[in-house]
Amino acid sequence: MFEIPISTLLALLAAVGMCLLHAGLSRLLVNPKRLRELQRELREYEKLLRKAMRAKDEKTRAKVERKLKKRMAHFERVRRELSGIWIKSMISMFLSFFLLIFVLSPLFGREPVAYFPIGLEGPMPVPFVLWYGLCAMSLGMLIQRALGLGMTWGE
């Protein structure tokens, strides 16, 4: 339907729009301060767990294990809450991703919107769905980081 440079850029803009939609939904569904607090608590728990595993003498190991047992229920609750936050974010991402695919796929049809320069028999044509997915996945993390909505466990 659209010529290649225009269709490539339109698909890229659609992916950016989807990423911004997902970031907005994440901002509404997830409290970033609470997320950081929960991640900090989980890192603390994992630090204690590593300390218990590395302890050479039994006295230190027993002391750390007692500390872990006292706080085990709390850390399980923290893990459940973090999992819930992660699931909310993933659901909003999949909904916005597939909503735009189903809306925009008929506009672009089956014609290629881009070409990969390397293929077995010359440049490889890339359909809209693949190009949109590549753009959305590659730009999604950058946009979330720029807006301070990183959902990685290690932050």
- Coarse structural class: mainly alpha
- Provide a count of the helices: 4
Terminal CA distance reads 43 Å
The percent range for strand residues is 5-15%
Coarse shape: elongated
> What percent of residues adopt helix (DSSP H or I)?
over 70%
How many structural domains in the coordinates? 1
Describe the main β-sheet briefly. Answer: 2 strands, antiparallel
Spans with pLDDT under 50 lasting ≥5 residues?
A: none
Please trace the helix and strand order, writing H or E for each element: HHHEEH
Spatial sequence of strands, sheet with the most strands: 1-2
Overall pLDDT confidence: 83
Describe it for me?
Helix content is 77%, strand content 6%. It has 155 residues and is mostly helical. The protein has one domain (4-146). The chain has a two-stranded antiparallel ribbon. A hairpin with a 7-residue loop joins strand 1 and strand 2 (124-127). Helix 1 (4-29) crosses helix 3 (58-108) and helix 3 crosses helix 4.
Q: Briefly, what is this?
A:
This protein is mainly alpha-helical. It has helices spanning 4-29, 32-54, 58-108, 128-146, and strands at residues 112-116, 124-127. The longest helix has 51 residues, at 58-108.
